[in-house]
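Figure 2 data, in text form.
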Amino acid sequence: MKILTFLFVSILFFSNSSFAANKYLLDGEWILDKQTNCEDSILKLTIKKNRIKADKLKGKAKIKKNRLTLGKDLKGTFSSNTSLQLASRTSECVYEFTKELDEDEAESFTLDSNITIDGRWRGIVVCDWDKENWGGGEYKLGNGKLTGKIDFIVNNGTIKAGNRNYPGRGRFWNDWSGGGHKIQSFKISKQKITIESKTPHDGHISNWEASLTSNNTMNLIDKWDECKGKLYRTEEIFFDSYSPKNLLDYVDGVENDKKYTIPGLLTFPEGNQEKYPVMMMIVNSGCGYGNREATYGFDIKNQGVATLEIDNCSPRGLSEDNPIARGNWLKLTPWMGTADALYALKFLQSHPKVDGDKIGITGFSWGGQVAYFSGLDLIRKSIVGDEVDFALRAPYYFFCRQFDNPKYSKNKLHIFQGELDSVPPNHCREMTNSFNNLGYDVSIDVYPGAYHNFDDPWWDSPPPEKNFGQWYVTDKCYYWIDKDYKRSWRLGDMRIEFDNYKGWDFSSDPLYKEYKKECEHSGPMYGRNDSAAQQSAAKLVELINQYLK
């Protein structure tokens, strides 16, 4: 059994001077504290002069590079001398180890006294009462077993909630998808916060404590130790982008289109690396992530990879209460979103903590379309040139195009799609085959019985149901892009040239009725598929470790 493929360490933060002062800071005996979903036990690790031994497995700790290896398949990073976690790439097995410090070590490795708690903090929380509801077990990749997502901002002795603003209800600092906790009172010290909060629907009062564990992380617990969470410090960034309405707008360059300033949330994992890989996340047509920024975000950062969430919507006057899907398709097209993603990629090239060669992108539905379009050479090269590219594209359930002469990125493209998606998987399968025949690197996973939105992140999501506000197409609704970047629908000898019409209104075309039979149907099925959600989450992590590490 391959026991491990990823290794990382959590709890305390070390400054660069701490690393320099003790090049053997991890040396000692490490005792198994907890194991989850593991067939075999590793009861003890020994680290001596940065050489790691666990039974027959051997490896090294490279302190200056913040890197650990164990055996041929194992690698990781560290940020603590007291706690480490080992996780398997090939299974859901997780080991947690602790190390007892002597007095000298305990005094040497403490939080940097200059670190403060000011900033935006986000993460997930799991509570014991929910564990009982779902039959036991902890949160893990794609299983949806979380109680809520945390988002609050601390600034100069004040604290405010940062989650979505619900009309008539405001914001919850602890949000469980439409309900949650509101802050009643708080106390802020330099490295700790205590919060008293209330659930408006029943008036329940609870008390919480959040304490810094590193520069980037806090642990969160409630008074009765029934809820535990992990929070990450988030950096708000801004960059300029433009708004090409369609593919042809890229032919003459995009900087003659309307300019916007796009905000984003950049969050780094635990650790003290010089530079980090980044996974960019793009919203769906609801102008949000459906809480995936909490679950996928947590999963990605646990791999030692930073996340960037782009807000394409608010600069264009859109929001979760007035999203793209509410008839605003022309206010924010995927072509505009693709420009935003590539300008974000360009921005990250100069960020001092980002490895510009190790940036990936994923997105969901509308956001999946953006991630996919970002690989078109015409689009990519018009913004970032020949040398800069995403190392990985991993879009979820979008509409694949067919090409007369595709000119696309040579880097990895992996597609996640449900068998019963609103766009039948034959479209992406045929595109995948045609791309691979031309030497591109494209793969696809199609999950049996899964609908659109199969990865809804909550374990108790309602069963799949029809969404009459959205559309679905048949297996004969083929969208094409020709060698001159013009778009069309084709079926046999029938063809509608989309770019001959303004505003995507080609209802006057003689073939419109034939088009409508294949491409305009309302009421697709949407909903979580537990197996597909877990398998796709594990595959995403596998791809990240393969292409961004």
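Caption note: The first strand starts at residue 6 and ends at 9.
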